[in-house]
Amino acid sequence: MKRTYIFLLVIIILGCSDHISQNNFSLTLNITGELEQKIYLSKRDAGKWVNIDSSSVVTGEIVLNGQIKDPEMFYLRSGQNLTNIFIEAGKITFTAHADSINKGITNGSKTQAELDSFNESISLITEQLDTLYNQYREAVKNDDQVKIENLSELIDTKDNERLARTIDYAYANNKSIVSAYLIMTNNYYLELAELDTITSNFDNSIKQTKYVELLLDRISNLYKVSIGSSFTDFTLNDTTGNPIALSSLIGENYLLIDFWASWCGPCRRENPNIVAVYNDYNSKGFDIIGVSLDTDKNNWIKAIEKDSLTWSHVSDLQGWNSAAGKLYAVNAIPHSVILNENGTIVAKNLRGEELRDKIAELLN
User: Fold this and answer.
1) What is the DSSP string of 226-263?
2) 257-295 in b/e burial notation, b at 16+ Cβ within 10 A?
3) Domains in the chain, start-ordered, CATH in brackets?
4) At 22, is the pLDDT very low, low, confident or very high (cuts 50, 70, 90)?
5) pLDDT given for residue 332 in this prediction
6) Average pLDDT for residues 58-82, to the nearest whole number?
7) CA-CA distance, 58 to 169, in Å (whole number)?
8) How does pLDDT run across 305-351, given as a tens digit for each residue?
9) Coil/strand/helix, residue 329
10) How far is residue 73's CA from residue 4's CA, in Å, rounded to a whole number?
């Protein structure tokens, strides 16, 4: 009986050990030249870096280790040098020059190989978008409004093409973690119904992996703040430190919740339009509360003053970890929500003439 007990105990220990080893990964870097700083293997969690392993060795062979359940996107960071790698259990190698780790070659990760293959299939679109974005930045620099408008349309068309290819890939490869990752990183381009449909199409075999779980959480949050839903209250401090509850502004006017930040170029470019709409309709029953995703209070206040934003402003100065931003499923800015007098969401993410037309319609 004692021998049987010991035998079973050994089997259990070996089983546990085997399970642990199956989740281990070893990433061997082969670096030509010399890195300027220590290298980190990290991942992102709630908008922050989480370091998994690191090395002070800056040249030659560098070995980084860790444990992982399912394939996941990790990042190699050394100073300003940054690249991403899909890590999975097993032995992986990464070869690069110290000056350009973003151009490194990965072997041993099937997930990374799959992602590389997809990226290669849309490389022409990516190159065209890079060219258009460079032209757009130059047009903004020169304040060429006609060119800015034309390039914006071209960028939207090309980006829609890229997104369509991504969606097609996800439908055709519904057992792939890479598909779930691609949809997760593009979810802010998708309408709620479409995002729900794509996510529901993923095979049960990946339903409990990180990126599908993130998508399901995102969808749940989006339904809570979809058009027709009641507002979710929050309380944040204004620029002087006084708390303002969203509920205190509801009852008489239509209310625009404007999520923005001083560092957000598209937000700042949209501000003159919002100011004009506010000036025209504030006395007729329209109000605004600005929710900043800034982290620097001085920059936030300076932007309010420079852009002449005379309505209420609040922030917890937590950037992408903004409590209000999370409640309203904000993962890109500018982002806006319009509430009626009863606190019901009646519109979202309207800009330019669409915003003006909607406010005019609501107050007519």
Assistant:
1) STTSBP---EEE-TTS-EEEGGGG-SSSEEEEEEE-TT
2) bbbbbbbbeebbebbeebbebbeebeeeebbbbbbbbbb
3) 2-108 (2.60.40), 120-224 (no CATH), 235-363 (3.40.30.10)
4) low
5) 87
6) 95
7) 38
8) 999 999 999 999 999 889 999 999 998 899 999 999 999 999 999 99
9) coil
10) 44
Tokens of 330: 């904000």
Q: Which of 150, 163, 158 is nearest to 130 (CA)?
A: 158
Task: Report how far apart, in Å, the C-alpha atoms of 228 and of each of 101, 194, 269, 324, 343 are.
Answer: 48, 18, 29, 19, 10
pLDDT digits 0-9 by tens, 213-264 = 999 999 998 999 999 999 999 999 999 999 999 999 999 899 999 999 999 9
The one-letter amino acid at 208? Q
User: Computed over its alpha carbons, how large is the radius of gyration of the chain?
Assistant: 25
The pTM score is 0.78
Residue 195 burial by CB count (10 A; 0-12/13-18/19+): exposed, middle or buried?
buried
Number of residues in the chain: 364
Pairwise CA distance, residues 229 & 345, whole Å: 6
HSE-CB at 287 with a 13 A cutoff on CA atoms is 18
What integer is the mean pLDDT of 51-71?
95
